[in-house]
Amino acid sequence: MNIPTSTYRIQFRNGMTFDRAAALVPYLQRFGISHLYASPIFTATSDSTHGYDVTHTSEIEPAIGGREGFDRMVSALKKAGLGLILDIVPNHMAASLENPWWRDVVEQGENSRYARHFDIDWSRRLTLPFLGDTFEEAVAKGEISVKRDPQTAKPALVYYDSYYPLAPQSWQGREEELLAQRDPHAIARLHDEQPWQLTCWREAAGNLSYRRFFEITGLVGVRVEDKTVFDDTHRLILELVHSGAVDGLRVDHIDGLADPKAYLDRLREEAGPECYITVEKILGKGEHLPEDWPVSGTTGYEFIAALSDVLVDDGNIAALRQAYDRVVGEPVDLKTELRNAKLLMADRNFAGEFTTLLKLAQAIAADENAALSEDELRSALRELLVAFPVYRTYGTAEGLTAADDELLQRVIARIRLDENAPPPQALNLLRCTLKGDVAQEVSGVAATFRTRFQQLTGPLMAKSVEDTLFFRQNMDLALNEVGAEPLPRTFSIHRFHSEMQTRLERQPDAISSTSTHDTKRGEDARARLYALTEAPELWAECVERWRKINQHKVTLLDDGPAPRASGAWMLYQALAGVWPPTLEAQDAASLKALEARFVVFVEKALREAKLRTDWGDSNEEYESAVLDYTRHLLSPDNQPFLQDFSDTLQPFIRAGLINSLTQAVIKLTAPGVPDIYQGSETLNFSLVDPDNRREPDFAQLERLLAEDEPFAAPTEESWRSGQLKQHVTARLLHLRQDKPSLFREGAYLPLEATGRREENVLAFARADREEALIVISPRLAFDEHHDSLTHHPRWADTTIMLPERLSGHRWRNALSGDVIVLDDRIDLAAFEGGACILLVRE
């Protein structure tokens, strides 16, 4: 199999084309990348900024260069010896009239050849929830009419710029009559003759006839479990793999599929044994990919979570939590907060999916002669969904696997002991249904229930945690990341070592990520905010002082101040994470540019929290008040705050840059395939999307890499520009290419530090029979009295003991080139002034 030694993720669209990517190949080659990792490249909706809303699975997006541009990029990659990994989207396509399959389904209904390509409930008319009001209101307002479609010249029902094709039998033979029609009642009758019905977008959550991606009604589920559908959607993908143009596939949202293992088995069979395949999958703590999946691993969110064990100060996090509780006004019970977020999702945002499951459960209960009321079944289903601790199980038509059944039993046992426990008979029925332990007559209904239940638990978890709870509870935003645990836990360097050993054993070829197009903030913002756990009292004092400075901009509304104290805590912390390390408080132009990005983030954060405003029901007065407060923070006229904020932030900036280098070194040397997200080789202080999908300054990246290597004596400038991080990354990328077996198969050996600064060191080695690498990096480096990155000792009076297999050898410093001989220990004082220590056995 073609296993990458590293990948470089590029976001296409928004100006990035195949030809521009091809022009970057010399940089990527010089940098040390083995594979370009491309966001979706197939034709998507005309206004797509990301490519996950695919409209043509057998066409490469013309706007980024089409097939010819793609071939030119592949040629450039191959000439440089680089491979290509594609991000593919098997779970969904765009529910857009630009999608010819979807358009055909709208026009032909169940008679369309693509009617079974999409996951549609054909027991009723296809719902098209794209109106601003009900259909009746839209007609009464004159917003809907009959016109000729400019693309097809056929009559269509028109709503603003959307032309909905009419079923042929509803207009053929009376075309001119319909086109002259202005009577609202006649339009309503024509609408009733269609295999679809236009509805208000607000009704989608509770009344949708097709499976969607999460809450996005513009993305319709695809039935890739059907071989015909698989073949139709993967024809071009497989052609590119078989031709040698594509070396690997990243499978988006694997948990959305009806049967992920069956899909992956088919994909592996069709793509062949040499194709590198990874899956986007969120793993909870202690959870692992099913061992029988024919993939190399995940795309690395669990790796991001593991890094927090190294960079969070567990001894001080309780103090930070207490400070946050004081700001909120009461102790935060995260277990209750998580339950409330899940209940909101189940009761409101996924009401339609919930109702579908409830109806299926009622049908099974009736056939099983179970004397259960609708309310009892509703309560049991609700509690089971809310209590589910992982994204999903992987049952099939035959029932659950032994491991999933064991998980289900544990969940149900906990529910029965809970104060909200539903009737045990109802829980038992749901357990039997999920297991497949039901009468033969309802086995098909049970299988449908099982599939729908499994396809719902993932979105419910994601939207509850990542897109609700993580915008409500803001003790430390660095911990509010995709893949992170939503409940309080301890952080331990020993657990990190254990997880890396498990990673080597279970998925040594999985992708290791630190930033992606979906992370809540860039890796360097996260690295800086980890440092808050080292200085909780200082941070709390600062926030209190800043709130007083800006108190006159707080607006008192009927439902309370805007922002509240807890909201201000979030704003100051988010601003601390995104603040450029070289930004001066008097730089009006840079402050304006930062404000433009930050305001978009704040609006999204307020709506995702779903407390005083929401995407579906925005509170304009509240949003305006908070956004005005936010703009004031970054106003050049607000110098008392800006000077204080900038000065106070300097030790956090210093600690964050050290953390940043440490997490980069870990990613490049620990088990897994490191991915560099575009621009993150220097510094990535991005906010949540769309901010994290902005194109970096590639010309600047190339200039920095071309300059002299800053290893011998790192300067403040090389730290703060990200050049040091970039050059260390490049050196390790080339080392990975020189020693692929060491990094892929070499043992992971935790090393223990002793002495005065033992808590401030992370050390481990990678070793096989012939080669070895010792990695030593700083951690917990915050010091409020120092902001210098070049003149501060880190490891005085600290030693690392070496096991027998590492002692008594000559070692070369991978950064400086110096050669030393080590006996059974390393005296770290000898390396003071260096950014980190990387020793390669000679």
Q: What does it look like?
A:
The protein is of the alpha/beta class and 842 residues long. The protein has 29 helices and 29 strands. The strands form eight sheets. An eight-stranded parallel beta sheet has the order 16-15-14-5-2-1-20-17. A six-stranded antiparallel beta sheet has the order 21-23-24-29-26-27. It has a three-stranded antiparallel beta sheet with strand order 6-13-12, with no helix packed on it. A hairpin with a 4-residue loop joins strand 23 (761-767) and strand 24 (772-778). The two termini are 29 Å apart.
Observed structural traits:
about 850 residues; Malto-oligosyltrehalose synthase; Maltooligosyl trehalose synthase, domain 2; (1,4)-alpha-D-glucan 1-alpha-D-glucosylmutase activity; globular; alpha/beta; Maltooligo_trehalose_synth_4; GH13_cat_dom; TIM Barrel; about 15% strand
Could you say which overall geometry the principal axes of the C-alpha atoms support? Answer: globular
Unreliable spans are: none
Number of extended strands: 29
User: Which range best describes the helical content: under 10%, 10-25%, 25-40%, 40-55%, 55-70% or over 70%?
Assistant: 40-55%
Supply the CATH architecture of one domain: Alpha-Beta Barrel
CATH T-level topology of one domain: TIM Barrel
- What oligomeric state do these chains adopt? single chain
Q: Mind telling me the CATH class of one domain?
A: Alpha Beta
Strand content: 5-15%
Biggest β-sheet strands, sense, barrel: 8 strands, parallel
